[in-house]
Design brief:
- The chain is mainly α.
- It has 16 helices and 2 strands.
- A two-stranded antiparallel ribbon has the order 1-2.
- α3 packs antiparallel against α4.
Length: about 375
């Protein structure tokens, strides 16, 4: 929950993440300042400047700071105080500081690496004793990002996403198995962007909203692209087309991002529909469904480099070395925590996918929900 963080890559949307992922509106300059980005030659090991005692002191201080901002936001919410603009930003940065300091501590004192935690975070980055702090972090984001009162929810939010993703993929020429994969990936995007919550706001951005965390221009672009394929979808799935007509009538003049159906439809059409024809090749290259979801999430975070990687001869070995792109990754909790990770100046896509471990728990839930839908769940 560190909701859609938005520093945009060249043409792109960055992802959201209502749980343990991404940032909000931060400039690259502030990102460098906040996360201590260090420029080093590729492959040069990070120099961990802190002694074990200093690393422990820094960690204890950062943990106390995280607890403090959690208490402050809870008190403000419980007492009905007006929250500051982007109230989730301070929480997100404090969480990052704590995790970064803990990684530096375990680098200096490997004996401090403990057991597994329920969030699936690598133990070198997170002390399982801090699980209650992240539970509170989640609860506060749920409150701060609650949908507006006029939001139009769906009673079948997960099924809607799978149906739309599958239909769009079929309209783009995919056969049934690959269209199903596109539907599964679409559900993963929903969990990555919103932690599986429909119609949410964004406690870290004033620009990105709704079930796929899109901006106004993205939503409008998606609507135009949907209109261009709507007739072809109606030809092979009249029931889905009828549902679309009902949702359009229902949404009226409301912001389309606050109707779950239209938000998902327009978000998928804006950023992902053009990539769906590549699903067969992606599935062959990345047979793990979670890796597939991660790759499509990178379309949100670093769209141009991801498209270039897809067009290369070797996707997994395609290397990113542009400092700005590395900064965008860090702003989305990838190579973010600890001096060693932040010192990286380049990474292959395989390394990037492996570093997206904060997304794993969300994508695992998306996969479980997808299997439920295949088995006949009404939602």
């Amino acid at each position: 929950m560190g909701t859609r963080r938005y520093v945009r890559a060249p043409t792109a949307a960055l992802a959201l993440g209502v749980l343990l992922t991404p940032p909000a509106a931060i400039t690259v300059a502030s990102l460098v300042g906040n996360l201590g980005f260090m420029s080093r030659a590729m492959g040069e090991p990070a120099v961990l400047g802190k002694k074990p005692s200093d690393a422990l002191r820094t960690y204890d201080s950062s943990r106390a700071g995280f607890e403090s901002i959690l208490r402050q936001r809870r008190a403000q919410i419980n007492s009905g105080q007006r929250l500051p603009n982007l109230p989730g930003q301070a929480l997100y940065l404090a969480r990052n500081n704590m995790m970064s300091a803990y990684k530096d501590l375990t680098d200096a004192l490997p004996a401090r690496i403990g057991g597994p935690n329920k969030f699936g975070i690598p133990p070198a980055y997170f002390d399982a004793g801090n699980e209650p702090l992240l539970d509170e972090y989640r609860r506060l984001f749920d409150l701060m990002q609650a949908p507006p009162v006029n939001a139009q929810k769906s009673d079948t939010p997960f099924k809607d996403i799978v149906g739309l993703g599958t239909a769009i993929a079929r309209a783009r020429g995919l056969d049934a198995p690959n269209a199903e994969a596109a539907g599964r990936i679409s559900l993963g995007l929903f969990f990555a962007e919103t932690n599986g919550n429909q119609n949410i706001g964004n406690a870290r951005s004033n620009k990105y909203k709704g079930s796929l965390q899109t901006g106004v221009s993205e939503d409008q672009n998606g609507r135009k692209r949907w209109a261009a394929i709507k007739k072809s979808i109606a030809a092979f799935d009249p029931a889905l087309n009828d549902r679309d007509d009902r949702e359009e009538a229902r949404v009226g003049d409301l912001d389309h991002r606050y109707n779950h159906w239209t938000a998902v439809r327009d978000g998928l059409m804006n950023a992902h529909a053009d990539i769906f024809p590549r699903v067969p090749a992606i599935v062959k290259t990345l047979p793990d469904p979670i890796d597939q979801m991660k790759l499509f999430e990178l379309i949100q975070i670093i769209p141009s480099p991801t498209r270039s990687a897809l067009g290369s001869r070797n996707l997994v070995d395609y290397r990113i070395s542009d400092p700005k792109i590395m900064a965008y990754l860090r702003n989305n909790s990838i190579f973010t925590f600890g001096e060693a990770d932040r010192a990286r100046t380049s990474a292959t896509f395989r390394e990037i996918l492996d570093a997206m471990w904060l997304f794993n728990e969300k994508f695992e839930r998306a996969l479980a929900k997808f299997e439920e839908i295949k088995a006949g769940s009404k939602r």
